Amino acid sequence: MKKLLSLLLIGLVSFNVYAGSYKGKVDKINLYGENWPNGHRGEILFTLENMPSNARYFRIAQSDIAFNTFLSTLLSVKHAKTTITVHYNVDDSENKYAPVKAISIE
Questions:
Q1: CA nearest 45: which of 91, 105, 104, 106?
Q2: pTM (two decimals)
Q3: For the chain, is the Cβ count within 10 Å smaller at the N or the C terminus?
């Protein structure tokens, strides 16, 4: 039992090791429909004016529970030219499509 609790604690502590946060204004929003021919079907890819070096695009999957909220937020802050903070997981692949965990509005 102690080993299981230790593993859970280590997992919780190390959860944010591959995470990052970045602040900026929304520059570009790409919305992909169901019939899009690549792996981004139903997803949102967006960029900030100055992207971090470990992310080329921020990615929101259609299956994300906050998909509609993220989409509304992105459209609103893009229109208002407001600064946001994106909290994301680092994607180590060559594409660097970083999955979004949360968005904070300044």
A1: 91
A2: 0.79
A3: N
Query: 58, 86 in Cβ contact below 8 A?
Result: yes
pLDDT along the chain (106 residues), means of 10: 50 56 95 79 91 92 92 95 93 85 90
Q: What does the pLDDT read at residue 16?
A: 44
